[in-house]
Amino acid sequence: MSFLIRQTLIYAVPLMIVALAGVFAERSGIINLALEGIMIFGAFVGVLFVRLVQQWGWFDVAKQMDNWVALQGFVLMTMVVAAVLGAVFSLLLAFAAINLRADQTIGGTALNLMAPALVLFLIRLIANQNTLQMATGDAASWFMLKKTMFGFDKNAELGFFASTFLDKVYLTTYVCILVFVILSIILYKTRFGLRLRSCGENPQAADSLGINVVKMRYAGVTISGALAGMGGFVYALTTANCASTGDVAGFGFLALAVMIFGNWKPLNIAGAAMLFGLFKCIAAAYASLDINGDGVFLLANLGLNANFYRLLPYLVTLLVLAFTSKSSRAPKAEGIPYDKGQR
Amino acid sequence: MKEKTPLMQRDGTRSVLASLISILIGLAAGALVVLLASMFNKSLNLKTAWEGIRLIFLGIVSTGRDAAGELSFGFNPVTLGNMLFRATPLILTGLSVAVAYKTGLFNIGAPGQYLAGTTATLFIALEIPTTVVPAWLVWILAFLGGMAAGALWGAIPGMMKAFLNINEVLACIMTNWIAANLTTWAFDVSNLKNTVENTKTAYIYKTSFNGVQTPKLFLDKIFPGSQVNGGILIAVLLAVLMYIIFTKTTFGYELKACGANRHAAKYAGIKDRRSIVLSMAIAGAMSGAGAALYYLAGNTEFYWSTYQSLPATGFNGIPVALLAVCNPIAVIFTGMFMSMLDIAGQQLTALTAYNEYITDVIISVIVYLSAFSLVIKLWLGGKAKKTAKDKPDANAETEPAPAASAEEGKEAGK
Q1: A125/B354 touch (CB, cutoff 8 Å), yes or no
Q2: Average pLDDT score over chain A
Q3: How far is B275 from chain A (nearest CA, A)?
Q4: Are A270 and A263 in contact (CB under 8 A)?
Q5: In contact, B72 and B293? CB cutoff 8 Å
Q6: Which of residues 35-94 of B touch A (CB under 8 A)?
Q7: Helix, strand, or coil here: B63?
Q8: Please, what is the Cα angle at B157 between B151 and B159, to 5 degrees?
Q9: Minimal CA separation from B189 to chain A, in Å
Q10: What is the largest distance, in Å, between two alpha-carbon atoms of chain A?
């Protein structure tokens, strides 16, 4: 059971944070279809940063001394780097959508095409193959939190809570949840958040009250890019063993679905992300999933084809959208370039 | 429209010019990436960068390296023939995106429809024994089957859009991944996996294994040694057919009206839901046909374990369509341009230290630019008007054009 929760969290957290990225863009009035591309870019930047720092030997000493505080600080640093460059990448979309009033769907698609192309071009030049990996070691040995770090004995039997949330987890999970909570509060409880949301509902009215729509939309897209870039690195670290392949397996698009299913509201999104995380987790690990801990592999014993579990998340998304589309309420002004003349 | 509009002010001219500018900027961006990459990589230098840049622009007429190790250029029937062959599916996926776009739908589901077409085509072409049914009949069945499967896969998001008002982009993305998984599943349990050539894993038999392949129609005489076949002619025919449907028939007009304003079309008595579903089905059929023609060539193989990736041909339909401003006839040319880029990318991989992904960078820049092609068009229009107006003026030549155009651009950008 604790394995299931841990794995679900690993898949759910990138979905959640990237879906929130979508919320920030769309609530400010810009459809960010480029989440997938920004994730790919963020994953690449993060992995490249880890690799370079390793090659320069900055954290080798910390690794040898098992100084996990320094190593976790390194993870935080990488998250920030991925977020910053994700934000920079998303400026391409912001510029096209806000300044040039371009078609946002096409602009987003362009970024989705650009990210994997650019990333793979560079990866091939850097690593002479299609995968960029860490310079030494693997993600688990460098960055995973283990119970020994908290002073427990290696063989200590922990309670359910500690073994689920403290052993074999990544710090990124908790950082992301914290960021998610803080940003949700900002979106709903601050003046900035209210102004941002007003630009997605009725930018003309917002403008007439002295809110700078262009600035707000830039803020929305930039925050969105930062979150998606960070989410991309988190995805690469936790599910891809800190490797970048110019691909995040459609997580950016799934996050869009999570956002719509969550009705553009953070709390619902968190719930939706957990649901999809669970399905993704089942798809990845159904064969070794022992739900009750009684040694019976229920899902594997059903004898269904692996491909069935793999397509389940997408099928469920489609069905859920079909049943909830009637009640979903998108921000009114999303996708419409702001035109002062329409006031 | 008795009076003839000057060439520069015609909408079509501006579209073509805007596309050409996009292409040029895209190629320049690709060259820039190559240059930057060369500066930061020790094994590369300015000489290799110059070679890379030349190949980006002239890859299609590259003939490899001469005895001295320098790049040589000239007529190359193999690359030209291969360009035509690779253009076939691109033209069709481009048509797929273009047709849907005319009805106001963004068909990002072309990869899924392409996969659906691939699966149906390969199953029909390989499972019907040619000892019983003549090969040409199997070919036709496989081609039509691929189209039908694509149409079905396109109709699903179409129906979700029409009846449940689900954003077609999202529905298409989900159906794409479902198609990728279903395709893998279908071939996984099938007996079509290539076991004869045991150096290859996870490939399906070529259709020529069952004696089914597209006739060459003497095109191999013009381009000896290349993969070209009659499929390119079918693609061109389908493009012309789409052009006729959308410009000369009531049916096409209904679809377009629906795309312009769904509610107004409904008010005018057009069945809007039917139009949306049909438009997506036609779009899907085009993608399916593209897949069918590609794999029925007989010399192409399908990598069936595809559940983690979607075919790039499907996504590349988007730039093909956008560059052609969704005009079916123009799609023929932009499709060939895209496949030319493809070939250039291959030459780049084969002849230099750079790799084919630079092509995708160029394509993505072109798509990015086409997102605001309207701005470019307005800018061009403004410029043309300006010169036309100032012609009688003696100062016309000395007028600082950049300043004026910048102003126009700002005007458009507001």
Answers
A1: yes
A2: 86
A3: 20
A4: no
A5: no
A6: 37, 41, 44
A7: strand
A8: 90
A9: 9
A10: 70
Amino acid, res. B386 = K
* Distance in Å, alpha carbon of B315 to nearest chain A alpha carbon: 8
What are A121's two structure tokens? 């071009």
Q: Could you give all domains of chain B from N- to C-terminal order, each with its CATH number?
A: 17-75+331-368 (no CATH), 79-326 (1.10.3470)
CA distances for B409 relative to A31, B93, B377, angstroms:
24, 33, 10
- pTM (two decimals): 0.86
Tokens of A102: 């371009």
CA distance B335 to B346: 17
Q: How far apart are the first and last CA of chain B?
A: 31
The verdict on B173 touching A (C-beta cutoff 8 Å) is yes
- Nearest-angstrom CA–CA distance, B328 and B340: 19
* Residue contact A110–B188, C-beta within 8 A: no
Cβ within 8 Å, pair A111-B106: no
How many A/B residue pairs have CB atoms within 8 Å?
A: 149
Average confidence (pLDDT) over A176-196: 94
Quote the CA–CA distance of B72 and B83 in Å, as a whole number.
19
pLDDT-flagged residues of chain B (< 50)? 1, 391-414
Strand partners, B204: B193
Q: Check if the interface score ipTM surpasses 0.95.
A: no
CA B55 distance to own-chain centroid: 21
Question: Are B363 and B27 in contact, with CB atoms under 8 Å apart?
Answer: no
Domains of chain A, start order: 2-338 (1.10.3470)
Contact B33 A111 (CB under 8 A): no
The stretch A244-256 carries a mean pLDDT of 86
How far, in Å, CA of B316 to CA of B333, rounded?
A: 14
Q: Do residues B114 and B150 lie in contact, with contact meaning Cβ atoms separated by under 8 Å?
A: yes
